[in-house]
Amino acid sequence: MTQQRPNMDWMLKDLASSVPQTRHVVLLSSDGLRMAQFGTDDDTADRLAAACAGLQSLSAAVAAEFPHGDGRMRMVVIEISGGFFYLMAAGAGAYLAVLADEGVDAGLMGQRMRDLVARIGQHLSSPPRADGPAA
């Protein structure tokens, strides 16, 4: 039996509406499954979530090169032609991803993402999935 996840899209609305030039906001699990979205359709959110899982894995490999860190990714920012991509750890097993146009205030976006995670980080998590039936 599949457990129904509560709709968390509303938590992302404030971020999307408070930072001009925001295009897509997606909350995803560490294995690339979309948990919530705002400002985007399901297909786009699913593609972003899957791509973010690979980027999160890549960032963990890079983090392993820092001998005094804990090896966990906190935030990745990529400037691309036409805009910015942000990926931030957002709770146990969850990540917050944002695509924004090139006119975005990059500092404001980073701060608002940190604020959102600090405010509601305990809701932005993905518990481990059980593979078998509950005992």
Let me know the number of strands: 5
Q: Largest sheet, if any?
A: 5 strands, antiparallel
Q: Provide the helix percentage.
A: 25-40%
Count of individual helical segments: 3
In what range is the share of β-strand residues?
25-35%
**Order of adjacent strands in the largest pleated sheet:** 2-1-5-4-3
CATH architecture grouping: 2-Layer Sandwich
Whole-number total of structural domains: 1
> How would you sum up the global shape?
globular
CATH homologous superfamily, by name?
A: Dynein light chain 2a, cytoplasmic
Radius of gyration, in angstroms, nearest whole number: 15 Å
Helix-strand category: alpha+beta
What is the residue-averaged pLDDT? 83
Query: Element order, helices and strands?
Result: HEEHEEEH
Task: Give the class-level CATH name.
Answer: Alpha Beta
- CA distance, first residue to last residue: 13 Å
